[in-house]
Amino acid sequence: MSTTRGTNASPPRMPDMAAALAHLAGYNTAAAANSLAELTRASGAVWADAISRSTTPLGMADRGLRWWREMRRRSEPSWHLPSEIVLSTPFAHLRDFTEPADRAAEVVPTLVLPPQAGHSSSVVDFSPTQSQLAVIRAAGLHRLFVLEWRAATPRTAGVTITDYLDVIDRSIERMGGRANLVGDCQGGWLAAIYAALHPERVHTLTLAGAPIDFHAGESVIASSTRTLTSAFGLAPYRALVALGGGNMPGRAVLTNFIAIQPQSEISRQLQLLENIDDRAHVERYRVFEDWFKHTQDIPGAFYLWLVEHLFWRNELISGELVVDGRRADLANITCPLFLLAGSTDHITPPPQLFAAAEAVGTPQDRIHRRTANGGHLGLFMGREALRTDWPPLMAAVHALSVPRPDGAGGDDHERNARDVVADPGGTPEVPAP
């Protein structure tokens, strides 16, 4: 697959565009079929339930009204673990989740960079029983910090990649000058760029669902971006930013996510109707919808930069990405590398992430690859990934971050990290993209 190069790079070659268009056509056809199948299944389930309950028309109307109220009732997502804002900029807060008793702990501090795709950063602390931060802390990485990406405003429309890298650097300096970096999705490629430019400040690098080779695998986002930019350049994206008053509207990003997997949206709403009398299911639905449907805008200058240099020109993996006159060469990264992909991730298919293993300078025996069952969002807040996949990775990071032989106490830390997440217990998860 070709890679466009340089500031004046030409668009992708026609065979690549034909492949992208074919992938989009096939994907959309399958999505439509899956949506119809879910509508048929749910309709049958609702009628079967009504018959089994001998539900009266009045009872069905009551269930329908409660369903409608739950779909419309939204609250702002919140953080669940206690934290303190120790550094603040107009576009980001540095939150310290370290408990007072652990502030002097002899462990390398950890900095988490959450996704930034029009949603709250609190996805890494999704709920009291589904928290990536709780897993990391229970693994023994007690000195824990998170950069919370704030909603863009007209004042921050001009925030650039330089500003983001600078706030990471200021944060690590405040933490002692060296840290374990954990990057989820867009936080992952941001962490990789930072590590390439400042390898001396990164003790270990963990990337989850993070696109590094934006053209690898089959991704509907990659295919649509390459199709649009080939035909129109950045014009469609500039138009969206202009409509957002200089920022990329979070609502537009949400609409795109829903359009990519409409069957998930349909399934989530119809499963709510099926389980409207199940308080546990309604609560799980509410927590997810509060986070998913509460959007925030992205700084326009930053958004247009990432579309051009990463999604379109794929400069991070080609080695041609230049930031403020410095080349962000992934080969500069030599620290231990931990990679976590989702087997059915349609946003960042595994090849986009695992490409990092061949691009970095880290010896292959210090690169850990793991594939979790499930999709994109499940990597960061899904019960299975949090109980099964994150604990061993974070226990391994901890073993490298304390002044004692590697592996000491590893089993205990892995077990502790697993146990802070509620056991699914056979209960169905709320469908998520």
UniProtKB/TrEMBL annotation:
<dbReference type="InterPro" id="IPR024501">
    <property type="entry name" value="DUF3141"/>
</dbReference>
<keyword id="KW-0378">Hydrolase</keyword>
<dbReference type="InterPro" id="IPR029058">
    <property type="entry name" value="AB_hydrolase_fold"/>
</dbReference>
<feature type="region of interest" description="Disordered">
    <location>
        <begin position="402"/>
        <end position="433"/>
    </location>
</feature>
<dbReference type="GO" id="GO:0016787">
    <property type="term" value="F:hydrolase activity"/>
</dbReference>
<dbReference type="Pfam" id="PF11339">
    <property type="entry name" value="DUF3141"/>
</dbReference>
<feature type="compositionally biased region" description="Basic and acidic residues">
    <location>
        <begin position="410"/>
        <end position="421"/>
    </location>
</feature>
<protein>
    <submittedName>
        <fullName>Alpha/beta hydrolase</fullName>
    </submittedName>
</protein>
<dbReference type="InterPro" id="IPR051321">
    <property type="entry name" value="PHA/PHB_synthase"/>
</dbReference>
